[in-house]
Structures are given as C-alpha cells and as structure tokens.
Amino acid sequence: MSDPGNAQVDPRLLVREQGFAGYLGEFRRRVRGGELGPLPVIIGLIVIWIVFQSLNDRFLSPQNLSNLSVDIVATGLISVGIVFVLLLGEIDLSAGAVSGACAAVLAVLSVNQGWNAPAAIAAAVAAGALMGLLHGFFFAEIGVPSFVVTLAGMLAWTGFQLWVLGPNGTINLPDGLVSSLTDTYFAYVAAAYGLAALATAVFLAVSLAGNARRRAAGVPSRTVGDIVFRTAVLAVVAFGAAYVLNLYRGLPLALLIFVAVVVVTDFVQRRTKYGRSIFAVGGNIEAARRAGINVAFIRMTVFAVSGGFAALGGIFAASRISSASQATGQSNVLMMAIAAAVIGGTSLFGGRGSTYSALLGMLVIQSIASGMALQGVSNSVQFMVTGAVLLAAVVIDSVSRRSQKASGRA
C-alpha cells in the first residue's frame, strides 16, 4: 500500500497556498500553454475604450455608458444560448429567427389575444425552447448536422414570424411589463450601491466557505490575501459601475437581469452535473459516452436552452422598440450573437468557454458600434471593424489550442 503522506499532489493545486508568487507563476504557465482565458478580450476592451474616449470625450460619459449597458442585453441574451451550443462544438444558425418568431408570438398573444404579460412572456420563451428542442432532436437522434438543421430552422422560423405578424408586419406593444423591461431604471442611489455591496459580500462569503470546505477535506486552499485581493477587484468594478450609472438614471433593470442570467448560467455550467456534462461532450464525445453521460439528452437540451434564450433576447429586443416587427431578430442579430460569444473567449472547437463570454463580447461589439456612431462612421465600416475583431479572436483561439497541444494540455 502507498503511504498517504507521500501521495502525489498536482502542483497546480498548490498555487493557492503559495500566495501571489504562486499565482504569478501559474499565470506565466497558462500563457505559455495557451490558456489565455478572458485576458485578450479584457485588454482589447480597455484599448477600445481608451481610443474612443481620446477621439470623443462623450464616449465614457454616464449617459453613453448607461445606454450601452442596455443596448447589449437583447443580443447578449441570445449569445448566452449560443455559448451553450458552442461548448458542444456545434453551431445554431436559427437563434436570430427564433428570437424574432418568439417576439411575434409574444406580441400576438398579449395584444391580439389579450393575454396578460407574464403569461405571454412565458409562452414565448416556451415556444423558443420547443423550437430549439426540435432542432436538437433532428441533430441528436436523426443525425442531421447542426449547421443544416439550424439553417433549415432559420428559414422556417423566419417564415413563421412573417405569418404570425400578418399583413401589417408590425404589432405595437402597449405600456406595461414588456416595455418596462428596458425602460425601468432604479433611480435611488442606494439601489446600485446596495447591489454592488451585496455582490461583493456574497462573493467574499462564498470564497471563505469554499476555503473552509477545502481545508476540512485536506485540499489546498486560497490564501487570505488572495481572497482579499479578488474581493477588492470585484468591489472596485461593482462600485465603479454603480457610481457611473447613478450619474445618469440609475441602475437599469435590463442590465440587472442580464448580469443575473450570466452569473446563474455560469454557475450551472461550472458547478452542476449537467454543466460539466456539456463540457465533457464538447471536449470528447466518445469519452463522455463511455463515462455514462447521456449524450443525446445533453445535445437536445442544449439546443432547447439556446432556443429559450433566443426567445428571451427577442422579448427584450421588442421591449427596446415597443413593438414586434418583421425586422426583429433579422439583419445582423445572429452574426453579432455568435461573434460576441467567440470574441468573449468561447472556443469554436467546443469544450472551452463560459457565459461571461457573452457579456464581455457584447461589451466589445457595442463599444465599437457606440464609439463609431459618435464619430459619425458608417455601418459599413463598423461591420468591417467588428469582422476584423472576430477574426482576431478566432486566430487567438486557434493559436492557443495549438500551444495547448504542444504543451500536452489539449
């Protein structure tokens, strides 16, 4: 029998006990191995903000940043669903059409059929999930490639959207719950600061509780200094955002919902059996199958999740303009949702990423759009710049995967 005292421990687990020096060494190791995480997009976002602020001092004004924080929500929610699909190494080309079709369903039920807003919203989200589940069935059970089945879905649901809206093509939404999703701001200063304090306190409590569990299990844990540093960084970001938002109209409800969705879905992906199964299937489908994971179930439900978030994004898009029309979910919505996920750090090759990618990626894309709009730059140039950023993100992803293979970590 082996001596427990001589048991080998992964050196990476000891980083937490080595303090900041250990994390610095771990950071260097990750960079050399191609594990860049969100670092490139964060650096890119900072550069974008510096450049546009130097060109126009209104870019970082409270009003522009507040508007930007609401503008990212609709497409960002669609991108959250896209992240789930990309983690499988697949693609969903129907998300934009599903969002438009479900916005049309919401408008018809709430305006033409007289349904109350909560019921109409629930029905629209359920419709999106069912559309996604249908795509997942043909993909997982029949074997139709995801590209083909979702391309067919894009065409079919676009036609369904036009049929539901009828000859007028537009249904205006009355003032109420739906319109309030993007029109509501918590003007009380205490609301934004209170939320920042709550987020900081919860993060600190969870970190300390996790450390206690690790110590009880005899597993290396974070140092107190590390926890304090991480909490301080979160506090600076949270209270800084609260300060800026309070200078304009306060905390937007839409942003609050979006951030809550990102946090909850990230928890599901990283801390639940279902979420880890998604990573397993996306990383190596055969190994996942041999580990006892129901691959068909994971695939079907992931497309259902994508459809549900596409519907939610369509609802927020309709809320933003107080109507559902033939243009909802069309144009460049799908491409921007996919681009946001990839730019934010989710791999196109599957098995790597998080829903924070949707938040970071949308911040990059909307920052470019907002900055160029302030400069009077045409949409054509905006698309070219966004395309270049997307290509750069994919190149970084490809290079990092190559580095990981070279270092034996892929």
UniProtKB/TrEMBL annotation:
List membrane-spanning regions. 36-56, 68-88, 95-115, 121-140, 147-165, 185-206, 227-245, 251-268, 296-319, 331-349, 356-374, 380-399
Could you tell me which CDD domains the record lists for this protein? Answer: TM_PBP1_transp_AraH_like
Q: Give the way it sits in the membrane.
A: Multi-pass membrane protein
Asked if the Swiss-Prot or TrEMBL record annotates the protein with the keyword Cell membrane, the reply is yes
Q: Where in this chain does the entry annotate a coiled-coil region?
A: none
Intracellular or extracellular location(s): Cell membrane
User: Which keywords does this Swiss-Prot/TrEMBL entry list?
Assistant: Cell inner membrane, Cell membrane, Membrane, Sugar transport, Transmembrane, Transmembrane helix, Transport
Summary of the function given for this chain in its UniProt record: Part of the binding-protein-dependent transport system for D-xylose. Probably responsible for the translocation of the substrate across the membrane.
* Protein name per its UniProtKB record: Xylose transport system permease protein XylH
What is the species of this protein? Nonomuraea typhae
